[in-house]
Amino acid sequence: MDFLSLIPSTVSVLAGGGDAGQNGSAATYSCTLTNIWSMKNHPVEYDTITNSAHWSPPVLVAHGTDYEMWAPDTLASPGVEIVAESGKTLTLEDEIKESQTIGSAGEYVVGNNQFNANDPPQTFNDIQLTSNFPMLSTITMAAPSPDWFTGIYNFSPIHPELNVWYESFEIATYPFDAGTELGDTYSLNNSPQEPHIPIFQLTNETIPGDNGILLDESETVVRPMALWNCAIQKTTEPEITIPVVNENVEDEDLTTITTDTDTGGDSDNDGEDDVDVDGGGDGEGEGEGDSTGGDGDVDGVGVCGRYFNECTVNGDCCSGSCQREKCRAKSRGSGRAESSRISSTGGNTVGGAAGLSRRSSVGTGGGRMKKRFLRG
């Protein structure tokens, strides 16, 4: 995982009462998935799946340290195996519900198929993290593929020194192999991996076969495949006053990529390859969700400069003139996809609204903090 942006709020994790449990506060996040798996960033054989490449219905779960959806170097659970191979989520949902009954998992959310060529970024129903369930994990299958997926694992959106929730965060995630099925190309019908092996990240050293699948145009690295952006919508406790944090971290080894549409063009005419936000075609594999269908870092040194060659507004990497509303629209998507939000006490509300809810009055007094890209 690459942490592109980590911005602290003024909401203490330790504030007591409310719905958060006996020992702390709760933060409700709205999260968006943006595709960057494209011909531009992963050109090998992508032309064979241009119209079918998609993400299966993503699953997001709030949990504590006693639950783990998935992690590198661990064996995939039956639910994770099925998601990675077919995109179906029911078995994984049953695993989460079982963890809810023993108090190790909280709310979870299930999204929809998201096609690279056609669909905009997908915004999910809100998910609440609490002091009892302060961690977030997500998973979605890269389809079609043998058992490849991407997502966040065991991430806690809490500033380690200030002990406050992050107001917003953005994470770029890489492809992983579930270790359950063989295959070295974009296909769904493959032989099982016997015995199963631990989950591992697909890199230039671990990609299967010799065809260079998933490598970038330089054939040297595997770029991230998805961006996850989450922002607080509301909290259960009043704000507190904390020191302003303004930390800029330099990293000379980051790969410069930018966003673009799936036209294969260079959006900023700077000669650099662009990261496509694309998405397309027929729904092969999983049948559980239908597609619904200021300034800052302008010196090119910060995260937005490296990844997008542009500036930021309110912590969002943007393009164009960086007008406030334009930036929000680009970073969060044009609307909220229909999805399910399931509480830790049972129940399922299905919904979606045109447009994204505005953030509640959480405040931005905590300042802005950028983190070094941490590969994981």
Automatic annotation (TrEMBL):
Residue span(s) of domain Spondin: 17-211
Region (Disordered): 247-297, 329-376
GO CC terms, sorted: extracellular matrix
GO biological process: cell adhesion
InterPro entries with a match to the protein in the record: Spondin/Thrombospondin_T1 (IPR051418), Spondin_N (IPR009465), Spondin_N_sf (IPR038678)
Compositionally biased residues, Acidic residues: 263-289
NCBIfam families in alphabetical order: NF038123_dom (NF038123)
Protein name: Spondin domain-containing protein
Organism this protein belongs to: Fragilariopsis cylindrus CCMP1102
